[in-house]
Amino acid sequence: MDQATFDFYWEDFPVGQVRAMGRHRFTEEEIVAFARQYDRQRFHVDARSARETPFGGLIASGWHTCAVAMRGMCDAYLTRSACLGSPGLDSLRWLKPVRPGEEIEFRARVLESRPSSSRPEVGLTKFLWDAVNGSGEQVLAMEGWQLFTRRRRAAGATKP
Amino acid sequence: MSVPDAILYWEDFAPGEVMEIGRHTFTEEEIIAFATQFDPQPFHTDPAAARGTFYGGLIASGWHTCAIGMRLMVQSYIGRAASAGSPGVDNIRWLGPVRPGDTITYRRVILEARPSGSRPGIGLVRSRSEALNQHGETVMTMDGWGLFRRRPEA
């Protein structure tokens, strides 16, 4: 892995940067398929009985929205980055339901960035990852940290 | 509305109550299947490539660990509760890797229960969930909020 090169290192995520993480249309079929496996509450798996719940109809599992956000993050930057993982999320909010047929837009904003005090080759980045529906309403907001390797500098010279 | 028997309302969640939610053994096959769809990083999808990473081998996506926890919560009590969803979760911490063959036990303690200030028939329950592996090591913790309907007046 030492020889690997990446498109994105810690330095490539400056505070204030906003990055698109793609769009995804949630179909009824996939909402039900995810929830049958992981979140079998009736407002996630049964369109008819979902109408009798506080949500008034089928909605996606919040974990489904998170998983799709993760996929968007991987495709947008993570798998091409020198990411060393994440210690976790400080907060995760499901702000609005995601309903069948809705197209959801995912984005990442850099909130904070600092070098690791204990590991000089590592930097920490705090992101807000959020998702908005077609009406511009925020449906998901997550704040958390990712660790990235810093760009290596050749001896006596600074690589771009 | 069809009402299953022994339905759990907000009043049934008492602060301090500890509950074992269930356990799950993560197979390599399902770790790869979940991650291929939702978290295609090499240490989640490719056992050979994973050996060369920081983690030294295949590990489950943290979202997979969360999703299995949700499944077990629905099976153990949310499925028979008057659930009104969740506004979110705080402090998700992935403290240790989950590797193929690991058996993870999930448990939950109720931290707080209070009526909703804005929605009369609803109460909030805040609980800490913990996931431990077969060596007793904590691999994940989170503090989640759940909304439940209050018990109807008799």
What is the tally of helical segments of chain A?
A: 4
Oligomeric state of the chains in view: heterodimer
Percent helix of chain A, as a range, is 10-25%
If classified by CATH, what would the architecture of chain A be? Roll
Structural classification of chain A: alpha+beta
Average of per-residue pLDDT values of chain B: 94
Query: Rough shape of chain B?
Result: elongated
Instruction: Look at the structure and name the CATH superfamily of chain A.
Output: Hotdog Thioesterase
User: How much of the polypeptide of chain A forms β-strand, as a percent range?
Assistant: 35-45%
Indicate how many domains the architecture of chain A comprises: 1
Give helix and strand order of chain A, one letter per element, not per position: EHHHHEEEE
Provide the residue-averaged pLDDT of chain A.
93
What is the overall shape of chain A?
Answer: elongated
Name the CATH superfamily classification of chain B.
Hotdog Thioesterase
CATH topology of chain B: Thiol Ester Dehydrase, Chain A
